[in-house]
Amino acid sequence: MNHFHVPDPFGSDGWRKKCFDVVFGYKSQAGQIFDVALVIVILLSVGVILADSVNSLNQRFGALFFKLEWFFTLLFTIEYFFRLWVVRRPLHYAKSFYGIVDLLAFIPTYLAILVPGMQFFAVIRVLRILRIFEVLHMRRYNRASGILLDTLFKSWRKILVFLLAMLTLITIFGALLFVIEGPENGFTSIPIAMYWALVSVSTVGYGDISPVTPFGRFAASILILIGYGIIAVPTGIYSAELMSRIKSQSDGRACSHCSLTGHDRDALFCRNCGAKLHDQEE
Hints:
Layout: H1 15-23, H2 29-52, H3 55-86, H4 90-94, H5 97-104, H6 107-111, H7 132-135, H8 141-154, H9 156-181, H10 190-201, H11 214-230, H12 233-248
Helix pairs in contact: 2-3, 8-12, 9-10, 9-11
């Protein structure tokens, strides 16, 4: 009895597996070339969007920009569905971070058919160049970025309390300046005055609205001094949480060669000189 062998396209030698290694892989030369070429195309497409937003360039090369944008959009569309085709679980990829970013890379251009101007939101495709971390073998930095995000998540309650306190302060000073200055000096409403208070307490100072009366300027001076005093609070909260997070993931082992401390608990070699680390009990 003859048995017909049907090759598995997802097997180690399958053609779909080979396509997967090129599109999603970063270790092979073909995969690296594909990713580098993709990054270059992404940067070119974002450059077209930025140039198209410049009125003088749009008037001269608007038709060319329009054609290029649709070329890049169709290219990213084909690439997206090709990625769905080569993976075993397309839905898993589509719901992943990169899958969502890849989808948003071309969706705004199609939406621009119904809502003019939506094509400019395609600049979100610049997030796709995060794949350069894999191309350049920088995956080890993903752990560092994870620490930063985890620190932000753990300190959000403290930062939220700070922002609520700032909102209270802005509301009070906004109402105060609305009463002192009045509509004749540009403070036409409390929300407008709150906008002025926000700009002042952040020490930005656009200058589009400013107090005129002596008492109003005195109140503005107090608000600016308060801004200088508390503007570093969120940074201090985040820094303290970050240091606590780093210390919790490091140990006290010192390198016998360069005496550097603060290595990760699972580190085998010194991150400064590369010498082998020894356990504390040795």
